[in-house]
Each structure stands twice: as structure tokens, then as C-alpha cells.
Structure to design on (182 residues):
């Protein structure tokens, strides 16, 4: 994993577990064209059930699949129909103030104007944006900035004991702002 310099501090974080799992997958890239990245397809097989039945190509939006594999490997229960990003609004417990490792669910518009969603993990924030570690962000697992006014809900894993490093993280407003994660 090679993080951008401004995020290199993440390698020293000792948790939360879902964040550590997500960082291990950092840099996974969707295969362009008709080919598929076997790693992404294998995630669907690991989740199994309906997800494995439905998810057959990495050109299908996969932010929810990424979050499902991160939750599973992180020892947390996922959500019903995890491929639909807005369903992650039922994950864990609601938190009014997002912090390190929390699940952030965003609203976006599709190319035909329909409402859709995006889901990822809170890394930090600047005045206008959340810095989000997620899948299917520019067709890869990476960190991107998403405007705060697009936030649908923030959810914290249901911890037995909350990791001590779960906190608000203030970051510089470096990098472009994502407008449509796909």
C-alpha cells in the first residue's frame, strides 16, 4: 500500500479494525473494458448468497461490495442487500459527528438524474469535505474528498469497546472534490 503523503499517518493507526482492513485493500483497481479484476469478483464470492449471484462484473458499481468485504473481514455484521450503497444507512449505530473509521453514506445523482448512493469510511475532514476511503472511487480503492452537503448519514460500527483512536481528524483541503463516484 502506497498512500499519498498527506495520508501516510494512517499506516501508524492501530485501529479501528475495519479501517485497517480497508487500508490493506488500498490501490485495488477495476479492470478497464470487458475484463474483470478477479480480486473484486472474489469479494462477491466471499460475501456469498445474493451478492455472489448478482455481482458478476467489476463495471457494476462496487462501493457497497467493498464495504461488505471490509465489514466482514473486520468482524462486523454487514447490511441487507449491501450492493446498494444507501442500505449502509442501516449499518451499526447512528452518530451525529463522524469520526475515524465511521461509515459515511452519501447521495449522488446518476447520469439520468436518478438518486443513488455512495459509501466509504471516514478518514478525516476539511472545512467543506470529508476525506473518504472507499471502493469504486475513480474505479479503484482510494481516498477522495466528498462535499459534506452530500452526506446522507454517518454510522459507527457497534463496538463492544470503541478503539481509543476513534476521533475527529482535521485535514488540509488538498485534492479535487469528487462529484460522482463510479
Amino acid at each position: 500500500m502506497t498512500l499519498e503523503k498527506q495520508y501516510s499517518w494512517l499506516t501508524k493507526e492501530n485501529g479501528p479494525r475495519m479501517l485497517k482492513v480497508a487500508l490493506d485493500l488500498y490501490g485495488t483497481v477495476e479492470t478497464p473494458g470487458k475484463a474483470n479484476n478477479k480480486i473484486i469478483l472474489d469479494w462477491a464470492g466471499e460475501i456469498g448468497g445474493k451478492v455472489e449471484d448478482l455481482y458478476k462484473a467489476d463495471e457494476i458499481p462496487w462501493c457497497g461490495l467493498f464495504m461488505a468485504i471490509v465489514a466482514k473481514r473486520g468482524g462486523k455484521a454487514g447490511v441487507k442487500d449491501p450492493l446498494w450503497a444507501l442500505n449502509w444507512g442501516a449499518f451499526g449505530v447512528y452518530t451525529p459527528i463522524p469520526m475515524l473509521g465511521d461509515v459515511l453514506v452519501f447521495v449522488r445523482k446518476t447520469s439520468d438524474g436518478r438518486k443513488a448512493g455512495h459509501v466509504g469510511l471516514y478518514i478525516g475532514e476539511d472545512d467543506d469535505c470529508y476525506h473518504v476511503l472507499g471502493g469504486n472511487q475513480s474505479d479503484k480503492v482510494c481516498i477522495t474528498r466528498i462535499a459534506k452537503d452530500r452526506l446522507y448519514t454517518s454510522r459507527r460500527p457497534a463496538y463492544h469497546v470503541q478503539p481509543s483512536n476513534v476521533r475527529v481528524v482535521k485535514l488540509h483541503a488538498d485534492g479535487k472534490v469528487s462529484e460522482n463516484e463510479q
Summary: The domain at 5-172 is CATH 3.90.1720 (endopeptidase fold (from Nostoc punctiforme)). The first helix runs from residue 17 to 24. The mean pLDDT is 95.
